[in-house]
């Protein structure tokens, strides 16, 4: 018959969990409220896509699956444009992305006629924004 293993007690000066582990355990929890978790807020372009759809085709709806696909598409185009604009800014040894870098990125990434329309709409939006800002001052 094998002898029973005896329980080894911890010395009093060794903490049971390090501060890093304690901080990790509390991540995502509301302070002072036990057992409650924060809601994860996932940003999307869904409301904007829906508004544009209603401007173009007021009588047509969109399924949730189609909305997910459109949201994925908009995120993809955004990431491509932002990446290209960032590269152009670094090539120019600058630290700020301006409308010029965005416009060049649009010309490089979007094909043909789509690029021309996007540039003209962007120019129109920037002009509208600057006129509104100058009116407020």
From TrEMBL:
List, in alphabetical order, the Gene Ontology terms for molecular function in this entry: DNA binding; protein heterodimerization activity; structural constituent of chromatin
Record localization: Chromosome; Nucleus
Per UniProt, the ranges with Polar residues bias are 122-137
One GO term of the biological process aspect: innate immune response
Known InterPro entries for this protein?
A: H2A/H2B/H3, Histone-fold, Histone_H2B, HISTONE_H2B_site
The Core Histone H2A/H2B/H3 domain is annotated at: 37-108
Query: Which stretches does the entry tag as region Disordered?
Result: 1-42, 118-137
- Where it mainly occurs, coarsely classed, is nucleus
Keywords for this protein: Chromosome, DNA-binding, Isopeptide bond, Nucleosome core, Nucleus, Ubl conjugation
List GO terms (cellular component aspect): nucleosome; nucleus
Instruction: Please describe the quaternary structure of this protein.
Output: The nucleosome is a histone octamer containing two molecules each of H2A, H2B, H3 and H4 assembled in one H3-H4 heterotetramer and two H2A-H2B heterodimers. The octamer wraps approximately 147 bp of DNA.
Q: What function does this protein fulfil?
A: Core component of nucleosome. Nucleosomes wrap and compact DNA into chromatin, limiting DNA accessibility to the cellular machineries which require DNA as a template. Histones thereby play a central role in transcription regulation, DNA repair, DNA replication and chromosomal stability. DNA accessibility is regulated via a complex set of post-translational modifications of histones, also called histone code, and nucleosome remodeling.
Record-stated family: Belongs to the histone H2B family.
Question: Per its record, how is this protein called by name?
Answer: Histone H2B
- Organism of this sequence: Acrobeloides nanus
Lineage, top ranks:
Eukaryota, Metazoa, Ecdysozoa, Nematoda, Chromadorea
């Amino acid at each position: 018959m094998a002898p029973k293993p005896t329980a080894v007690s911890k010395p009093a000066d060794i903490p049971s969990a390090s501060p890093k582990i304690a901080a990790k355990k509390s991540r995502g929890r509301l302070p002072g409220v036990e057992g409650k978790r924060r809601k994860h807020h996932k940003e999307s372009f869904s409301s904007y896509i829906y508004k544009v759809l209603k401007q173009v085709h007021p009588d047509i709806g969109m399924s949730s699956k189609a909305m997910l696909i459109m949201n994925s598409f908009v995120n993809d185009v955004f990431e491509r444009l932002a990446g290209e604009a960032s590269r152009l800014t670094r090539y120019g040894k600058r630290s700020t992305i301006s409308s010029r870098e965005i416009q060049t990125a649009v010309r490089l990434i979007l094909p043909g006629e789509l690029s021309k329309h996007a540039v003209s709409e962007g120019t129109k939006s920037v002009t509208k924004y600057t006129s509104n800002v100058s009116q407020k001052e």
